[in-house]
Every structure is written in C-alpha cells, then in structure tokens.
C-alpha cells in the first residue's frame, strides 16, 4: 500500500510540474492556451504508456508542445521550446520519437526533415538516393549533430553523401546541391565530414 501511495504522490508531483512548465512555455512561446491543454493531455498518454518512468517530465513536455504546435499550424522550433523549458534538445527529440511511437499522437516532421524534403523536390534525386539521404539525417539526429547547426547545410550534406553511396552515371556536384539548398559549399563540406564521422562510428 505504501508503494502505491508513493507512486500516486510521484505521479501527482509530475503532473503539477509539467502543468506549470507547459503554462510558462505557452506564454513565452505566444501560443494559445488550447495548445497547452492538448500538450498536457499528451503527457497523460505518455504516462499511460509508461514513458515517464525513470525520466524527467520536461523533455516530454517539450515534445508535446512541439507536436501540438505543429498540428495546430503554429509550429515552434524544438530548439526554442527546449530553451524555454530548460531541457536538452536531444532528450526532447527522443521524447518526440517515443510519443509518436505510441501511435496515439500526430506525426510531425523535424525542421531539418522539412528542409531535406524541399531539397529533394528541387534536386529530384532517384528514390534510392532520397532514401539514403533520410537515413543519413536520422543518424545525425540520433547523434545530436543537428543541434545548433545550419538546417540547409545538414540537408545538403545528407544528399551529397547519399549520391556518393549510389552508383549513378551522373550526379549533381556538391556546389550545385549547396546552391539548391541555399547554403555554401564550405558549410556543406563541414556537415558532410561530421556525417561521415557519425556513420563510421556506428
């Protein structure tokens, strides 16, 4: 009985902490209260799926605000939400994946995914190249190498690297891809080197 009482007390404490954190973030991010309410409801889903056990609630609060702001058509970058809630962006990104893995919340794209999709529309690579590019992006995101870096540079680097993995008769140059992404060849080169290091370490 004491164990259940302790668990109930902990759950109530988590709900109180998350509600206060979300309310503060909603004000600072200039979001309507309904998004905060929806984000709070999403934390109930996280608790029901036992995602909060042994973890801080704030990364999931950040994830819930990101998902709900996108779903409402008022997207706020995860990096900004994480700063407001004083949580690690990588932890918040992982929380987004875990929440979406429940199948009970809307699926949303990261900011870099959106840029890479736009770049693929512009460059029109074969499906095999596009698939490799998104696999490269996933590896970078999992390693935290997309935080505080140029989204265009990351997208360009992933596409450049993907073209190198697929045997094609002709491919656009790194300079051409960088131009399509709206970044510089040097930024693309730097991000590509980071990507290569991440993939080699796997």
TrEMBL record:
InterPro entries: Cyclin-like_sf, TFIIB_cyclin. Keywords: Plasmid. Residues 20-97 form the Transcription factor TFIIB cyclin-like domain. Gene3D superfamilies: Cyclin-like. One of its GO terms (molecular function) is TBP-class protein binding. The keyword NAD does not apply. It comes from the Archaea. This is Transcription factor TFIIB cyclin-like domain-containing protein. SUPFAM superfamilies: Cyclin-like. Pfam families: TFIIB.
């Amino acid at each position: 009985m004491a164990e259940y009482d302790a668990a109930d007390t902990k759950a109530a404490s988590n709900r109180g902490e998350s509600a206060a954190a979300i309310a503060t973030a909603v004000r600072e991010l200039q979001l309507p209260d309904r998004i905060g309410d929806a984000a709070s409801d999403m934390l109930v889903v996280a608790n029901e799926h036992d995602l909060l056990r042994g973890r801080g609630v704030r990364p999931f609060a950040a994830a819930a605000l990101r998902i709900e702001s996108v779903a409402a058509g008022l997207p706020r970058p995860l990096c900004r939400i994480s700063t407001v809630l004083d949580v690690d962006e990588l932890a918040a990104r992982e929380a987004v994946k875990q929440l979406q893995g429940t199948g009970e919340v809307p699926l949303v794209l990261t900011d870099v995914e959106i840029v890479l999709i736009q770049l693929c529309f512009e460059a029109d690579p074969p499906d095999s190249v596009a698939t490799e590019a998104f696999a490269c992006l996933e590896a970078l995101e999992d390693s935290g190498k997309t935080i505080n870096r140029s989204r265009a540079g990351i997208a360009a680097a992933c596409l450049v690297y993907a073209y190198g993995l697929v045997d094609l008769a002709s491919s656009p140059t790194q300079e051409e891809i960088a131009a399509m992404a709206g970044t510089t060849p040097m930024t693309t080169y730097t991000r590509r080197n980071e990507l290569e290091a991440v993939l080699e370490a796997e």
